[in-house]
Amino acid sequence: MSSIVEDICELLDSYNGRDKVVRLTCYAFKLYGCIKGEQPWQTAGSRLSNARMMLRLFDDIPMIRHTYNYGLGKHESSKMAALLGVLANMVDQAFLPVEKACWLHEVGILKLSTKTADRLEVVSTALWAASLYISLLQTLRSLRHLWWSRDCLQTCSENGGVDARKNLDVRLTLGAVTAGKLCLDIAHAVSCLPPGWLWGERIGPTKVAAIATTSSVIGIALYFARKRLIK
User: What are 219-226's contacts with CB under 8 Å, separation 24+?
Assistant: First the structure.
């Protein structure tokens, strides 16, 4: 019991961990509100979503540091991996000020025309979806390399390397689950785009909330799985 409590406290003590919990609570509230038709639950979920966004207002400096340290990805194993890493950083770096501008307009500090504000919202959501898609590509590349490593290990070491193969199997499983989660997140992000953008606004709010809630549960499960299984 104490181990479970310690794990939960460790999750809540970190910025990313607490964000996972708030995200789950946010979309669980929205899902319940949509199913029951109760607006207060949906409002509570929206306010939790706003709380997450407020914390992201201060992510610029850590993101700039990460982008600077990553550079052109010369440490990556291939040029494609480096290109994806640089693209991911560019998209994430662009997303933060755009989201900030949307928030400043929403609270009335930044004066924008309705047309410009709507365009900024679309750009913000499109950057979010693009970031998720790049992450999916990176995850799929990682899965392919892990699969090659497993095949090579099995061919070169028929009687040994049992622990190494088990470790690769665990990483493959977690990678596959991560890819599935990213697919759910992409479905969620694109559904927030306006009509005419793929399946933008074609998925109802209940289904969107269900997709986001499922993704949030998987995210927390992956956190604990990685903590316990990967050593």
Answer: 219/20, 219/23, 219/24, 219/181, 220/11, 220/20, 220/21, 220/24, 221/177, 222/174, 222/177, 222/178, 222/181, 223/11, 223/17, 223/20, 224/7, 224/11, 225/174, 225/177, 226/174
Q: Where are the alpha helices (DSSP H) in 14-113?
A: 15-36, 39-56, 60-70, 79-106
Neighbours of 30 (CB within 10 A): 25
Q: Is the pTM of this model over 0.85?
A: yes
Phi, psi angles (nearest 5°) of residue 228: -95, -30
Q: Please state, as a whole number, how many other Cβ atoms lie within 10 Å of the Cβ of residue 131.
A: 21
User: What span, in angstroms and rounded, lies between the C-alpha atoms of 204 and 210?
Assistant: 10
Q: How far apart are CA 98 and CA 18, in angstroms?
A: 24
Torsions phi, psi of 225, nearest 5?
-65, -45
User: pLDDT at position 1, please?
Assistant: 56
Q: Which amino acid is at 126?
A: A
Q: Which residues contact 200 (CB under 8 A, 6 or more apart)?
A: 190, 191, 192, 193, 194
Q: How do residues 61-113 score in pLDDT, each as one tens digit?
A: 999 999 999 999 888 888 999 999 999 999 999 999 999 999 999 999 999 99
